[in-house]
């Protein structure tokens, strides 16, 4: 009676379950865009598939008004021209509700099996998705491929594994038998049915539409809910491709494809989203975006369980460091990667004004600041190589923010525009690095400056740095905290600060791991313990409220023999 | 390094874990008030301990203003005269926050071990707690003992088991090692620290202060949170005793006893509770009570994760029945038990106006209504026996509601006052049973009439009965649904209705199990899938949001040998 798609992917599922339990390195989806894995023509085919979407109407056989929407602009300097079928919200909700009824009845193995099959198909479309991610988010190709495809698929699989881990712990039925002394026992047969919540709404973001959108989408799907995917109007295509693949798999498996639908919108869709988010049929909302919108959902969408990832202030505490150059290289990479447009990118770098200890002796604050500045400049010195790291600026708001930030403090490295060798209209900016002082500038650095904007902040001591790191994370939110120290006591104090701030800590990163990176199956992305996110990707809390258990009980014949009737058989 | 209290109770914990996984019958706390289990003088000692609390100030060594509060009235007709130390909210929160810091650092095994030790001590105090429950809630002694002591302890243990089941799945650390082709792998050591949310607030009710209060209290405690227990002003004593025992155990185990504190209040404490519930330090709220107050918390206490159990409309669908007398006896018992003041007590009994099929042939609607009326009358015919089932009416509001309800429809059985043989001032009322019609009276029976008030409702068909049952549960909430049918198809349809309504279903109860009863470790109490409760007692969703995981990572030497360096060792 095992669902065939469950059986097909059971081995992968079991490996994923082992991985989330032990949290060592594991990934089933190859992160290198290798022809050996993805086919000799994979790259070319994917790019062609992306190009075929431009200046074209995206085919999607879901309920539509007949009109089309869509106004995506590539940060590399051209309009996508992709149009999407416009959906009427009422019709879409009705279709999702209808589809959910039979989907619900299919049960956990079908939900898991279909989810895993969708993931396998998405993996095959990795190049197509990568180019779509690149030309909506502005990520450079390699990041668009890795974060947009295999890493996003990993995060999705992780959510499916957590879902199964929860679902499998609810038995389908039980025999309950309560002794009654000399009287026959009371005996009942009980059935436990998983009751999904209904319809989930996934609200995508414009920087990581798949990586941030997949966990909620697959967590909903794997627990029997229907899902309406509402991409950010600036990054529709990667999720549209995803929805189409999901619908193909659902249809082939004999389900109503409206279990997964797309709600594509034109820019400035706020009022539409607010109306939708308050609809009584919407029971789950997964949101990635601004603090303002996320907080609005948390405070108003009472009918739904709301999962949010919002803004935060990521911080680095430099106390002492063995190899300052290596540390500066690592930090500069984190600042430059996708132009600081990662929710995990550091912003505040605290350095004691009295300087720090290194293997090469004491370094002054200015020397440390200069080392960081030099590392950033080196990384961006060769425009052709730099653009492969920086990518492009997703929208004009980020570019304007760089200009606003410039006057906040002393400029250590100024941001400049770069020409992209392949895309003449690309919006490319190098990182802006400023110097601030904890004594006077708290108001400047206690909020998020999203984009390639960061601050080297003079503090009275590492103690003050850690105090700031913990309290800012707790008050304003943070997804990452990084510490550099050669002192075990300071590392332990940083650990305490990270718990106070509810933020993940990285210690002495000087090599090939960067604070921005979060590995599925091992790193919890976000904690839910500070305002940057009310949930982690992924843990039991991310899953457990997406379904309920409804039970029934009926008397049956006892299995045990009552005490007075002699020995049990 | 196992905490001694964890080791002491590990066997019980493992049995509880097995029970929640298989959901068969299991209980470690003996439900019969037997001298063999609870001691020859257990009953007398417990009653004496209760009496010693009356007209006395309850000693509690927690921060206090020096004043006292408390105005509990026994539904059996006397003022308790127990006074409790008054606590200042600011001082209490500060003390809880301080205590929580070291409690947090003690880690999961200490949280679980201490929680289980508290439960063992509570079990020893079962008689004292039973008399306190009896004289605050109005429950008859046997129910006060069972539901107030061992069954409440079972529910608490269940919450502790679920907590450990979640906590143990987060490894304390991991070795993460990512291959890098011919280069040495990236290797990191990761630590995962459980970060409790902070301070939990338990808001007790006046009918089942321990049974409904313990799950939240112990779920919080077992996941490392401090807890402020705010009993209903009408039922303080059972939770005051509980808090004192918890503090004793905490102190003996070397912890700050302010991990658990009591906030006793005088009646009409609404504004105080609202202020407290919005305090930023309060991260978890467990509430049992009115829909109005529960909904207010859900909509306003945004800083906390709020768990509520509110009002509901419990229903019985009678389609056909083998032995009508047995069914009527079972239903009448459910109506009379604690005078319908159980959140699980049935209110609406749907019977087709065309009558039903029984083993003795067709019965008309009136015959079914009369059978139910007769069964209620028989059960309450002998006042001395009846009061042991009915108990007393908790407060005047319930008594007044009976009077209001009387005019809603045709009276099948009128409610009357009974003299209690042992307590001359006891507020005892027999159940009121009215006849209504689904065609005209929906507005009358679609809300909760809390107390011994129920309706036999004529419907067009069982189909309509099930439609009403599902939709009322979904819209107005319900904790129980019961169906009587000899037809497999109808039972399956009832199962579908129960899933639509998100409500637990009992089928053909004619023997020693009653729809009001919910067995720990086997029955999920509430589902979280309809407005009667936003969570179940107890499942993973009841636990998973009470803590977060904060991780750290640091580079370590790889364990594997890179590919080019030859074979792995």
Automatic annotation (TrEMBL), chains A, B:
Under the heading InterPro entries, the entry gives: Ald_DH/histidinol_DH, Ald_DH_C, Ald_DH_N, Aldehyde_DH_dom, PaaN_2, Proline_metab_enzyme
According to UniProt, the name of this protein is Phenylacetic acid degradation protein PaaN
Provide the GO biological process annotations.
L-proline catabolic process to L-glutamate
Gene Ontology CC terms: cytoplasmic side of plasma membrane
Recall the taxonomic lineage recorded for the source organism: Bacteria, Pseudomonadati, Pseudomonadota, Betaproteobacteria, Burkholderiales
Q: Sorted alphabetically, which Pfam families does this protein's record hold? A: Aldedh
Keyword line? NAD, Oxidoreductase
The answer to keyword NAD applying to this record is yes
In alphabetical order, the GO MF annotations are: L-glutamate gamma-semialdehyde dehydrogenase activity
Q: Which domain of life is it from?
A: Bacteria
In its keyword annotation, does this UniProt entry include NAD? yes
| UniProt domain Aldehyde dehydrogenase: residue ranges | 85-503
């Amino acid at each position: 009676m095992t669902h065939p798609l469950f059986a097909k992917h059971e081995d992968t599922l079991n490996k994923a379950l082992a991985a989330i339990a032990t949290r060592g390195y594991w990934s089933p989806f190859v992160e290198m865009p290798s022809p050996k894995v993805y086919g000799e023509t994979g790259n070319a085919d994917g790019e062609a598939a992306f190009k075929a979407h431009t200046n074209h109407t995206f085919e999607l056989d879901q309920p539509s008004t007949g009109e089309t929407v869509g106004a995506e602009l590539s940060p590399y300097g051209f309009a996508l021209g992709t149009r999407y079928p416009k959906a009427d919200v009422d019709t879409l909700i009705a279709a999702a509700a209808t589809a959910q009824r039979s989907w619900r009845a299919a049960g956990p193995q079908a939900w898991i099996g279909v989810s895993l099959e969708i993931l396998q198909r998405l993996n095959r479309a990795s190049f197509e998705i990568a180019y779509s991610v690149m030309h909506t988010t502005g990520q450079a190709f390699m990041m668009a491929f890795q974060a947009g495809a295999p890493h996003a698929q990993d995060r999705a699989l992780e959510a499916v594994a957590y879902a199964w881990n929860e679902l499998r712990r609810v038995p389908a039925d039980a025999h309950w038998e309560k002794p009654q002394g000399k009287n026959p026992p009371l005996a009942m047969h009980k059935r436990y049915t998983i009751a999904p919540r209904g319809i989930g709404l996934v609200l995508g973001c414009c920087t990581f539409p798949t990586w941030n959108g997949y966990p909620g989408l697959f967590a909903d799907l794997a627990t029997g809910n229907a899902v309406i995917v509402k991409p950010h109007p600036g990054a529709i295509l990667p999720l549209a491709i995803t929805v189409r693949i999901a619908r193909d798999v659902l249809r082939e498996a004999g389900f109503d494809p409206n279990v997964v639908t797309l709600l594509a919108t034109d820019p400035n869709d706020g009022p539409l989203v607010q109306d939708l988010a308050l609809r009584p049929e919407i029971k789950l909302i997964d949101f990635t975006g601004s603090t303002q919108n996320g907080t609005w959902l948390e405070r108003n969408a009472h009918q739904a369980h709301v999962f949010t990832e919002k803004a935060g202030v990521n911080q680095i505490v430099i106390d002492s460091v063995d190899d300052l150059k290596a540390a500066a290289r690592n930090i500069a990479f984190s600042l430059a990667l996708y132009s600081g447009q990662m929710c995990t990118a550091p912003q505040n770098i605290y350095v004691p004004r009295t300087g720090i200890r290194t293997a090469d002796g004491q370094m002054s604050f200015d020397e440390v600041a200069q080392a960081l500045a030099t590392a950033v400049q080196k990384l961006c010195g060769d425009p052709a190589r730099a653009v492969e790291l920086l990518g492009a600026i997703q929208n004009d708001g980020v570019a304007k923010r760089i200009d606003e930030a410039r006057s906040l403090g002393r400029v250590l490295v100024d941001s400049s525009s770069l020409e992209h060798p392949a895309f003449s209209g690309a919006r490319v900016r190098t990182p802006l690095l400023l110097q601030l002082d904890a004594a006077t500038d708290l108001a400047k650095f206690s909020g998020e400056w999203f984009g390639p904007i960061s601050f080297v902040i003079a503090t009275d001591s590492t103690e003050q740095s850690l105090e700031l790191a913990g309290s800012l994370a707790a008050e304003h939110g943070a997804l990452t905290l990084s510490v550099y120290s050669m002192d075990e006591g300071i590392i332990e104090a940083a650990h305490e600060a990270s718990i106070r701030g509810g933020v993940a800590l990285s210690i002495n990163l000087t090599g090939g791991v960067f604070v921005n990176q979060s590995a599925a199956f091992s790193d919890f992305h976000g904690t839910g313990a500070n305002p940057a996110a009310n949930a982690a990707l992924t843990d039991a809390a991310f899953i457990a409220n997406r379904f309920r258990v409804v039970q029934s009980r009926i008397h049956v014949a006892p299995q045990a023999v009552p005490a007075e009737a002699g020995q049990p058989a």
